[in-house]
Design goal:
Blueprint (H helix, E strand, L loop, with lengths): L1 H22 L12 E5 L2 E4 H18 L6 H24 L6 H14 L4 H10 L4 H21 L8 H9 L9 E10 L6 H19 L4 H8 L10 E6 L5 H7 L11 E3 L2 E11 L6 E12 L7 H16 L4 H8 L10 E5 L6 H8 L10 E3 L2 E14 L2 H31 L2 E3 L5
Antiparallel strand pairs: 1-2, 1-11, 3-4, 3-6, 5-6, 7-8, 7-10, 9-10
Length: 435
Amino acid sequence: MKNLLRALLLLAFLSSVATAQQARKAPNEPQTVDRIIAVVNDEVVTLYELRNRLDSAMAQLKRQGTPLPPRDVLEQQMLERLVMDKVQLQYARETGLRVDDAQLGQALQRIAAGNKMSLAQFRDALEKDGITFAKFREDIRNEMTIARVREREVENKIVVSEGEIDNYLADETGKGAGEEYEMAHILLRAPESASPEQIQKLKTKADQILERVKKGEDFAQLAAAYSDAPDGLQGGSLGWRKLDRLPAIFAEIADKLKTGEVSSILRSSNGFHLVKLLGKRGGAVAPAVQQTHARHILIKVNEVVSENEAKNKLIALRERLVHGGSFAELAKLFSQDGSAPKGGELGWIYPGDTVPEFERAMNLLKPGELSEPVQSPFGFHLIEVIERRVQDVSTDRQRAAARQALRDRKMDEAYQDWLRQTRDRAYVEFRLEDR
């Protein structure tokens, strides 16, 4: 979910940049009069919106080093993705889902912190680049809304039974010993009630794409041009995943493919897939892991408390601790984390339990050592390591990891299925070819 939201926030940022670039065109350059190019239920998609999205997509592909698809092909893909965004945002409004100003403000603070700026500095930087903060703010709200829709309508409804967990743990792939696979895919989504003629047309298109791959065309370029999956602009990349965290249809063939090899056409309820294995790694069993017993004090950065103020407050608290102050008492008084009533106690932490910035700083500390102020997306922390131990993963932990792995495996397929159903229920009329 975090990775998805990060990708969506990046897309919103690129869209805002593209809007600014459009606005900076010289007055004597030819300007195309805006027009309606699609109707989605009771809303419209304009040519201006499409060109902004197209410009941002092309900038993203160039930055990734992905060869650009033909502009007209990418244009069709971007139009369909705009339609999908409209459909999801409409569904959110109809069902009462909204991102309020407080939640939006926190997200903007995290984006600014990620760029090592205060919110005011980040706003100034946007304005200097010709990006209106109001437009950027609404882009982020929309992307957060889409992420929340996915969470509510798909992720929260996925059920993993105890029997599935038992079977998973009994199977060799459920013991954490499997290799990791980096895979990319192209999805050609089939309508929910597709006719035999539609299915055949889609299959023919998949055959044509596979033939182009075999002739040496770039898989990432073809994914950007034709994939109906949200990760198309990332070349269809799924990132590094263990076998148990891949969609079942991909997991079945992952260990049969050689690195660089592309699968035959796969059929699922969502449509047709092409899968490429980009790499394999790992495979060693980790019988035990290092756990860290730690506590912390958190000061959040917001519109009232600047980064400098938060950091300076922790520097003062650290000075009191160095001179004999009680960590537990100061945490209870000043920490803005849920652990404050427990004196900042976080208990035994496994690798991956905290955000990377926190974990990196914590791992550098010796037992009994106190960190300098550490910045994370949540604010600034003082971290103290109490002790460490190496221990076998508990049964409860194994079952929790198994449950999450099974959820991850089901999630992508469930989301694609929900998108297909939601898209098919919408009234969509394309007018792009009306010249």
